[in-house]
C-alpha cells in the first residue's frame, strides 16, 4: 500500500513488471486470489493514466495521489512503445476480474496508434501528443521508443486480443498491422553490410528520406518476433525464417562476438551504401561502436531471440551463442566485491568500468531467456 510519500511510477514499467508479475503469480500459484486482488488494486490506481483528453495514457502516475502526468523532460508527450505496450496485461486483468475498463483503456490507446500515420506498414514517428493522440516527428525505426509496439501487435493477436473492438477491425486488425510491418521491414529497412554481408536493420529520418546505417541493440528482438510469427502460422516460413536466422546471427556477431568484452554496445553503425565508420569509433570489420554508444545495460533482446529460435528450429548454435553471452556477462558485468551485476560503461575497454545502475529487465528478462 503506497504511503503519502509514494513516488511516481512509470505506467509502462509497472504494467510489464509489477502488474504482469502479479498476474503471472496468480496463474503459477494455481489461482491464489491474493495475487489477483493485488493486481486489481494496482490496475485501479494506474487507470488514472488514461484520463487524458485523447485517451492516450500519461507516462507516469503517483500511486498515492492518483495524479497522472507526462515525463518531466517533455510533459505533453508519450512515446509509441510506452503507449502501445499495455494490452496483454490489461486485457488479462479484465478477463480475470470481469471489469472491461482495463482492456478498453489499453486497446483504445493501441488502436489509436494503429490508425495513425504509417508508411508501408511502419509507424511514422516516435513521440505522441497526449492531448491530441497525434504523432509528432516522422522517424521510422524498430528501435528505442517504438520497439515493443510491434511486439504487442502479434502477441496480442495470438492471445486472442481485440475481439471486443470489432468496429475497429477486431483481432484481424492486430494481425494485419503486424503483417504489414514485417513486410515493410524486409523491403525498406533491411540492409547488408559492405563486405561482411551482415543483415542489419536501418532507420529512416522520414518516409522515403535519408536511411541511416544505425541499429539499436533493442532491435535484436525482431528476429525472435518474426520466428514466433512463423511458428504460429502468421508468417510463411520462406523468406521470413531465413531472414530471422540471418538477423539473429548478425546480432550475435556484430554486437557481441567482436566486442572486446564480449558484451553488446547500446547502438552500432556499419559501413555500406556509401556510409563509413567515423575514425573516432571502435571499428571491427564493417561495424563500428561510436564512443557515446558503447555502454551495456545488460539488455535481453538478443537472448530472447536466441531462445525463441532454438525452440523453433532446434539448432544448437543458438544455445551455444546464448551461453557465450552469459559467460561474457559473468566475466565483465560482475562486481568483484559485491558479487552482483552492473552496467558496463564501455564494452570496448578492458578491464571494464562499472556504473551504479542495474535495470529490472536483467532479472525479469535477460537471465530468464539465458536460463
TrEMBL record:
- Which InterPro entries does the entry link to? 6hp_glycosidase-like_sf, Glyco_hydro_47, Glycosyl_Hydrolase_47, Seven-hairpin_glycosidases
Q: Mind telling me which GO cellular component terms the entry cites?
A: endoplasmic reticulum; membrane
Taken from the UniProt record, the cysteine pairs bridged by disulfide bonds within this chain are 220-251
**Pfam families listed in its UniProt record:** Glyco_hydro_47
EC number(s) recorded for this UniProt protein: 3.2.1.-
Tell me its family: Belongs to the glycosyl hydrolase 47 family.
Protein name per Swiss-Prot or TrEMBL: alpha-1,2-Mannosidase
Amino acid at each position: 500500500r503506497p504511503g503519502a510519500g509514494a513516488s511516481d511510477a512509470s505506467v509502462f514499467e509497472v504494467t510489464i513488471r509489477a502488474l504482469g508479475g502479479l498476474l503471472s503469480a496468480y496463474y503459477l500459484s494455481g489461482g491464489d486470489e491474493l495475487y489477483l486482488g493485488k493486481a486489481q488494486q494496482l490496475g485501479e490506481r494506474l487507470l488514472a493514466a488514461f484520463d487524458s483528453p485523447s485517451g492516450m495514457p500519461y507516462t507516469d502516475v503517483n500511486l498515492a495521489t492518483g495524479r497522472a502526468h507526462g515525463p518531466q523532460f517533455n510533459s505533453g508527450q508519450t512515446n509509441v512503445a510506452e503507449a502501445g505496450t499495455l494490452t496483454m496485461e490489461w486485457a488479462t486483468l479484465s478477463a480475470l476480474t470481469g471489469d472491461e475498463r482495463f482492456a478498453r483503456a489499453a486497446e483504445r490507446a493501441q488502436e489509436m496508434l494503429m490508425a495513425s500515420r504509417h508508411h508501408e506498414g511502419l509507424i511514422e514517428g516516435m513521440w505522441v501528443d497526449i492531448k491530441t493522440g497525434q504523432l509528432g516527428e516522422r522517424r521510422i525505426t524498430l528501435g528505442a521508443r517504438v520497439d515493443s509496439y510491434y511486439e504487442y501487435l502479434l502477441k496480442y493477436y495470438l492471445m486472442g486480443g481485440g475481439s471486443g473492438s470489432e468496429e475497429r477491425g477486431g483481432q484481424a486488425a492486430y494481425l494485419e498491422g503486424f503483417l504489414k510491418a514485417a513486410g515493410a521491414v524486409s523491403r525498406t529497412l533491411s540492409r547488408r553490410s559492405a563486405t561482411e554481408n551482415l543483415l542489419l536493420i536501418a532507420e529512416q529520418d522520414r518516409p522515403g528520406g535519408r536511411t541511416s546505417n544505425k541499429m539499436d541493440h533493442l532491435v535484436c528482438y525482431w528476429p525472435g518476433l518474426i520466428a514466433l510469427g512463423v511458428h504460429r502460422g502468421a508468417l510463411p516460413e520462406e523468406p521470413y525464417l531465413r531472414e530471422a536466422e540471418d538477423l539473429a546471427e548478425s546480432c550475435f556477431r556484430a554486437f557481441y562476438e567482436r566486442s572486446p568484452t564480449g558484451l553488446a554496445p547500446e547502438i552500432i553503425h556499419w559501413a555500406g551504401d556509401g556510409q563509413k565508420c567515423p575514425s573516432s569509433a571502435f571499428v571491427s570489420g564493417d561495424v563500428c561502436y561510436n564512443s557515446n554508444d558503447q555502454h551495456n545495460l545488460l539488455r535481453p533482446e538478443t537472448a530472447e531471440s536466441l531462445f525463441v529460435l532454438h525452440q523453433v528450429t532446434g539448432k544448437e548454435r543458438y544455445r551455444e551463442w546464448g551461453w557465450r553471452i552469459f559467460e561474457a556477462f559473468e566475466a565483465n558485468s560482475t562486481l568483484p566485491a559485491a558479487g552482483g551485476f552492473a552496467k558496463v560503461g564501455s564494452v570496448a575497454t578492458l578491464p571494464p568500468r562499472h556504473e551504479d545502475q542495474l535495470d529490472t529487465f536483467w532479472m525479469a528478462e535477460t537471465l530468464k531467456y539465458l536460463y
